[in-house]
Amino acid sequence: VLEVWAHGADGPVFVREYPIVGASGGPGPKLREGDLQVPEGIYAIDALNPNSAFHLSLRVDYPNAFDRQQAAADGRSNLGGDIFVHGGRASIGCLAMGDEAIEELFVLCAEAGLGNIEVIIAPCDLREGRKLPEGLPVAWAEGLYRQIAAALEPFRREEQAGQ
């Protein structure tokens, strides 16, 4: 599920959620080009693509500084790139949202401005006390998931109910 939140006077305000209709890979961060994984971490949207082969798309800034730092420490290269949130229903390494959803998300991102968008990609909802996936391919993934869980903490829908 992709959730959209906005900054409100008293903190984050839930706007809407969209089902992710296509993705590939399994739990665990993207490590290299062609591994079929969706990146996991805290990203920005760094470009809007109105001419996408997948209707419309939003480019995720993978690999970011964290991804490059971990790759250097692991001795990995060829991390891949061109990761998008896009229309359509199928995807390899990206998040396919369907055409109607990507139209709404594209407009929201354009109106918000690229510098105001943060994207947190997690293998599951780490706010709900779920256990971290087991058998992760790299030792640093557990620390990454703790960072993701901390970043997600302010975004709790049950807190919105009383407002």
How does this model look, in words?
The structure is a single chain. The chain is an alpha+beta fold and 163 residues long. Helix content is 22%, strand content 23%. The chain contains 3 helices and 7 strands. The strands form 2 sheets. It has a 5-stranded mixed β-sheet. The protein is globular, with a radius of gyration of 16 Å.
Short recap of the structure:
The protein has helices at residues 65-74, 99-112, 141-152; strands at residues 2-8, 11-18, 41-49, 57-60, 83-86, 95-96, 118-121. The protein is α+β, with helices and mostly antiparallel strands and 163 residues long.
What's the SSE blueprint?
Layout: E1 2-8, E2 11-18, E3 41-49, E4 57-60, H1 65-74, E5 83-86, E6 95-96, H2 99-112, E7 118-121, H3 141-152
Parallel strand pairs: 5-6
Antiparallel strand pairs: 1-2, 3-4, 3-7, 4-5
Proportion of residues in extended strands: 15-25%
Question: On the 0-100 scale, what is the average pLDDT?
Answer: 93
- Class by helix and strand content? alpha+beta
Strand order of the largest sheet: 6-5-4-3-7
In helices, the fraction of residues equals 10-25%
Tell me, what's the shape?
globular
How many alpha or pi helices?
3
Number of strands: 7
User: Describe the biggest sheet?
Assistant: 5 strands, mixed
Terminal Cα span: 23 Å
Oligomer: single chain
Could you tell me the radius of gyration in angstroms?
Answer: 16 Å
Which residue ranges are poorly predicted, with pLDDT under 50 across at least 5 consecutive positions?
A: none
- What are the secondary-structure elements, in order, as H or E? EEEEHEEHEH
